[in-house]
Amino acid sequence: MSHVKAGGTSKNNRNSPGQRLGTKRFGGQIVRTGEVLVRQTGSTKLAGPGTFISRDFTIHAAVDGVVSFNKIRKSRFTGKTVPRTQVSVL
User: Fold this and answer.
1) CA-CA distance, 89 to 60, in Å (whole number)?
2) In the list 26, 34, 39, 81, which could disulfide-bond 73, CB 3.0-4.6 Å?
């Protein structure tokens, strides 16, 4: 009657795969309408001219053209201005 005594439970054994976020098309690249430019959590980069932002904050190209990234100053609700990156397709 050999047997193994009861083992304890493990608590820290959950893991999730990466979300594959980040910049998918870089400045100077030619893109077509609908292509994904940036996948992001929250609006860290802003959608400029020639782009649109979807429900999960992914920035897509709205027109055919060349991708460019520009630094802009964005005003917050408190009046403080913060530097942000604006993605545009021209």
Assistant:
1) 9
2) 81
The domains of the chain, with CATH numbers, are 22-89 (2.40.50.100)
Task: Give the angle 77-80-86 at the CA atoms, nearest 5°.
Answer: 85
pLDDT tens for the chain, 90 residues long, are: 667 777 777 888 889 999 999 999 999 999 999 999 999 999 999 999 999 999 999 999 999 999 999 999 999 999 999 999 999 999
CB neighbour class for 63 (10 Å; exposed up to 12, middle 13-18, buried from 19): middle
Q: Where are the alpha helices (DSSP H) in the chain?
A: none
CA distance 23 to 78: 29
Residues near 29 by beta carbon (within 8 Å), at least 6 away in sequence: 66, 67
Say what the pTM is.
0.81
